[in-house]
Amino acid sequence: MSQTLLEVQDIRTEFPVSGGGLFQPRRRLRAVNDVSFILRQGETLGVVGESGCGKSTLGRSLLRLIEPSAGRVLWQGEDIAGLSPEEMRLKRRDMQMIFQDPIASLDPRMTIGDIIAEPLTVFERSLSKAERRSRVLDVMDTVGLSGDMLNRYPHEFSGGQAQRIGIARAIITRPKLVVCDEPVSALDVSIQAQIINLLQELKRKFGLTMIFISHDLSIMRLISDRIMVLYLGRVVELAEKSALFADPKHPYTRALLSAAPVPDPKAARARQRIMLRGDPPSPLDPPSGCAFRTRCPLAEERCAQRVQELETVAEGQEIACEVVAGSL
Amino acid sequence: MRKSIFKSEDLTVRFDTPEGEVQAVSGLNLDIAAGETVAIVGESGSGKSQTFLSVMGLLAKNGRASGKAVLEGRDLLKMRPSELDVYRGRDISMVFQDPMTGLNPSLRISRQLTETLEVHQGCTRKEADARALAMLEAVGIPDPKRRFRMYPHELSGGMRQRVMIAMALLCEPKLLIADEPTTALDVTIQAQILELFGQLKRGFDTALILITHDLGVVAGLADRVFVMYAGRVVEEAPVDDLFEDPKHPYTKALLASTPRIDTDLESLEPIPGRPPNLQRLPKGCAFAARCAFAEAQCHELRPPLKSIANQRTCACLLVEAEEREPV
After folding, report:
1. Which of the residues A136, B147, B288, B315 has the least number of beta carbons within 10 Å of its own beta carbon?
2. What was the pLDDT predicted at B322?
């Protein structure tokens, strides 16, 4: 059993939002709601869900880029909630992030060399200029950028290359954890495949632990070891990849899997789709009990009565649905 | 009996840019029959969207189209804007990726829908209301009466896209162009909209052109597929043939680089490099620089689009008519 790198206990992140009128009291939108999980060294945890499910907020809350309002995040056993901003900043040497929009996340007035070197100027201040330059060239080579691009600016790069720059910046300090937030969804298919392969290669080479946030289950199937499915801020299923794809248990996971398009016309025609009615409810006014019950084909009266807790239903597979769990 | 309703001949789209002229679409020949669903697949910059913006007369100011785009005998490219207005929305309509940009934020859903009926079909307000309501119901909007009185911002993305589709279908157009209609939507909502297109296919005689980068969407909906690369069609085939036996190296590579939800893959086979700059297109085949099979001649000669089998065309020097694989 490999070591636990990160342990998350009942983390909750809320945003204050307008009450809907000038004199209405402000309301709180709970984007992440009592999420708990353990991340093992070297594994890739996929976090999947639709827009508004809280997957990006969760990623940012773990790194305290957004301050969670409750819960604990234990980094190698240490609670990082109590760290001062300065201490937290230094911790981020070990935890880096890769963002969705590769161009927007690069400072347009900095050269590529300076962008990639920036984490070194913060975390490894003792390096000489020459050492820093050689580290930058090293990491550029690792991510497939040629060294002569060092003095160019972000706007000269395509989306795929810009994402390589973002990856180079994230891994130059040799972090233990990299949180990837939809790192390929802005890219064309042929370029997307290059970046996915690069991430897989880095994972093997450096033993990186990754949290991979995406709405795309087919990418999850490639890259994740375990997958967490979120719906309206809560975990509805957390399972080993093989279990999740072979036998998804939560009704939402099942619907999500059956809704994803398959690039094979015969399989597409033969497939039985589980059509979900309607749209996800507003996180400002979530349904009582299980938030999915308003769209769930299996919903019963009891689902409205209490929030569903995760329970183990098979080896390496937990779901938050008493209706399914009770029928197994 | 196949009834052709839309044809393009040598359709070419050029843009004037500060860096010189860019040819976004080159010599496109399409032939689309009534009731058929045709997918146009390609990555960004392949020209798939510009092709149909030009057909709709919606190119940016610096763009111009040449060649022919003939809808039932009339060349849309030759029409004056006032003439085109008669056809747009009535015989040919378009659904865009972002439903918010297609809807007027300051008008109620009811007004947006009834306007086309009053303009194109001279309906009275009352008739138009009734038909528009019926159409909202047909596209699966729950509680249509209430939604009818709402403004676009009060609807979710999926609902807005349904409204756009309802609007596009109101005059029962002969040709409906859907440009990435589900790309901005969540996967469960995408499934609902694709299901809706599937029902429309069966219920209306409208020909559907589906512009997309997503091979999964193509597989689920299209009858026939055109694959575009750098402004040109590189392969055309019935949907089953294309997925079962892709001929053009680009189509093969695209399929091999697509992640699959239905099988475990070790890794993907990405296409090396990136699409060429349209301003500096290479002399030979535009894909040659990224192609695993390319030979010396590929960098010199531009491959013409030729027929290789029944209903199949391919633009590759290495693909011969009927069963000979590129080696």
Report:
1. B147
2. 65
Q: Which residues of B touch A259 (CB under 8 A)?
A: 187-188, 190-191
- Residue of A143, A190, A242 best to disrupt the B interface, most CBs of B under 10 A: A190
Q: Which residues 6+ apart lie within 8 Å of A295 measured at CB?
A: A255, A276, A277, A278, A280
Yes or no, beta carbons of B187 and A267 under 8 Å apart: no
pLDDT over 60 at B97, yes or no: yes
Q: Which stretches of chain A are DSSP H helices?
A: 55-62, 85-91, 112-123, 129-142, 159-171, 189-206, 217-223, 241-246, 251-259, 265-270, 322-327
| A231 band by pLDDT with thresholds 50, 70 and 90 | very high
Cα-only R_g, chain B = 21
Question: B75 phi and psi, to 5 degrees?
Answer: -80, 110
Residues 164-203 of B with CB under 8 A from A: 186-192, 194-195
Residue B324: how many CA atoms within 13 Å on its side-chain side? 7
User: Mind giving me the DSSP string for B107-141?
Assistant: S-HHHHHHHHHHHHH---HHHHHHHHHHHHHHTT-
Instruction: Measure Cα distances from B202 to A156, A275, B138, B206 in Å.
Output: 47, 19, 13, 9
CB count, 10 Å around CB of B35?
Answer: 17
Kindly provide the b/e burial profile for residues A205-240, where b requires at least 16 CB atoms within 10 angstroms of the residue's own CB. Answer: eeebbbbbbbbbbbbbbbbbbbbbbbbbbbbbbbbb
pLDDT band at A119 (very low <50, low <70, confident <90, very high): very high
Contacts of A267 in chain B (CB under 8 A): 219, 262
Does residue A200 register a pLDDT over 60? yes
β B175-179/B37-41 pair status: unpaired
- Chain B environment of A240 (Cβ under 8 Å): none
Q: Are strands B207-212 and B175-179 parallel, antiparallel or unpaired?
A: parallel
B258 touches chain A (CB under 8 A): yes
Q: What is the largest CA-CA distance in chain B?
A: 67
Min Cα distance B123 → chain A (Å) is 32
**Minimal CA separation from A106 to chain B, in Å:** 21
Q: What is the pLDDT of residue A223?
A: 94
**Which position has the higher pLDDT, A19 or A155?**
A155
B245 reaches A (C-beta below 8 A): no
| Among the partner residues B44, B217, B274, nearest to A261 by beta-carbon distance | B217
| pLDDT tens for each residue of A83-113 | 999 999 999 999 999 998 888 889 999 999 9
Q: Is the pLDDT of residue B260 over 60?
A: yes
Q: Do B268 and A222 touch (CB under 8 A)?
A: yes
Position A68, amino acid: P
Residue A77 has pLDDT above 90, yes or no: yes
**Residues constituting chain A:** 328
- Please tell me the predicted confidence (pLDDT) of residue B323: 53
Residue A163 CA to residue A189 CA, distance in Å, equals 14
Confidence of residue B326 (pLDDT cuts 50, 70, 90): low
β partners of residue B175: B92, B207
